[in-house]
Design brief:
Elements (H helix, E strand, L loop, with lengths): L18 H12 L2 E7 L15 E7 H7 L8 H7 L8 H9 L1
Antiparallel strand pairs: 1-2
Length: about 100
């Protein structure tokens, strides 16, 4: 699924729903896995968002998120770190392959 930049006030044509409400629903019902990303570099002088070495990725199956709390639609970093281990950018595909098997 392709990400989109949407205005919070943009409406879905022919309905009374805001488009962001639709996208939140669409993403939450389509994904089998979520990949959370964290730019972990703390030194402002060294931060480079284009450097993949400065990022950590957390891969979590949707089923685990569903088990935590069906009404909860967000998760903070500490609980995420307790549930799964961070992986580097080059480890994303192998990690997903292991989860899918």
């Amino acid at each position: 699924m392709v990400g989109h930049f949407l205005s919070e006030n943009q409406m879905i044509q022919g309905t009374d729903k805001h488009i962001l409400d639709y996208w939140k629903w669409a993403y939450s019902t389509v994904a089998d896995y979520y990949i959370f990303c964290l730019l972990h570099e703390k030194d402002r002088e060294k931060i480079n968002p284009l450097s993949m070495d400065q990022w950590e990725f957390y891969i979590l199956p949707t089923g685990i998120l569903d088990q935590l709390n069906k009404r909860q639609k967000k998760i903070s970093l500490r609980p995420l770190q307790r549930i799964c281990k961070a992986v580097a950018y080059h480890e994303i595909k192998p990690s997903l392959d292991r989860l899918i098997e």
